[in-house]
Amino acid sequence: MNIRERTHIIKQIAAELGFDFCGIAQAVKLDEDARRLEAWLNKGMHGNMHYMEKYFELRVDPTQLVPGAKSVITLLKNYYPEAKQNIEAPKISKYAYGNDYHEIIKEKLNLFFDKLNDTFGEIHGRGFVDSAPVLERTWAQKTGLGWIGKNGMLINKGSGSFFFIASLIIDWELEYDLPMAKDFCGSCTRCIDACPTEAILPEKVINGSKCISYFTIELKDLLIPDQMRPKFDNWMFGCDICQDVCPWNRFSKPTTDTAFKPIFEILNFSEKEWNDLSEESFRAIFKHSPIKRSKYKGIMRNLKFISS
Questions:
Q1: What three-state secondary structure class fits 126?
Q2: Number of domains, the chain
Q3: Angle at alpha carbon of residue 58, lines to 11 and 68, rounded to 5°
Q4: Is residue 294 within 8 Å of residue 96, measured between CB atoms?
Q5: In whole angstroms, what is the distance from residue 57 CA to residue 64 CA?
Q6: What residues act catalytically?
Q7: Bridge partners of 77?
Q8: Gyration radius (Cα) of the chain, Å
Q9: Which residues are recorded as binding [4Fe-4S] cluster 2 (predicted)?
Q10: pLDDT tens digits, residue range 42-76?
Q11: Does pTM surpass 0.90?
């Protein structure tokens, strides 16, 4: 079997497993990204996300993650929900409406890797779903699946940006896709203009330490600065403002994957019901939800902050 046939079969398997897009790039060191990441870290834009300072070489060089790596396979999975939240409820980012994507995508990624081994014989590699030092959006752009928008999100021209990204680094050479040659954001600045905390800067730089998602999820065991109070617009977990205003997301279509079916309470809980929630009930209801990342204590802190 030649490289072209092998590549075609890999993409066919990805589609059969329910991934919306599959792109493949050569596993090379990301020198330009290394420079940008270093500058970003030096400016302290990662705030208290100290994990971003670790494993620098692993983030920019896939061969450090998988010795002998030849290819990086990038997979996109649509999560855009059809259902809407109660308009009076504390706001939750759409990616967290259903069960934890780490668990769902990881299971699909493991099955994907197993099928590749069954089809082609032994392949050495590792899969990643937003839980390891991999620059997923860069790899997605390198495979032509989209471009990095001014809001730092990967944007697909025909489907928008509401996607989870998974990566599989393997030691097999494949046929590589061409990178996205054009940035279709153009002169649009809607995401920059709409960000209430001014976290989106020119030149596609995101000050992570000013993002609402950072304050509501990453800033653990610390108080949210008072000056941010009038800027939160009732966001309790994450923030979708920069995606909601993006013109390209008019092409977003609701996911058909039942694994991402929204949790009833997330769509329907009122502010009072959230505030009356016991820790025991929180753990039971959100056992498989991304919301558990902030823990009960964090959610109660966020609620108090946006309601005071």
A1: strand
A2: 1
A3: 55
A4: no
A5: 7
A6: 130
A7: 164
A8: 20
A9: 195, 211, 239, 242
A10: 999 999 998 888 888 989 999 999 999 999 999 99
A11: yes
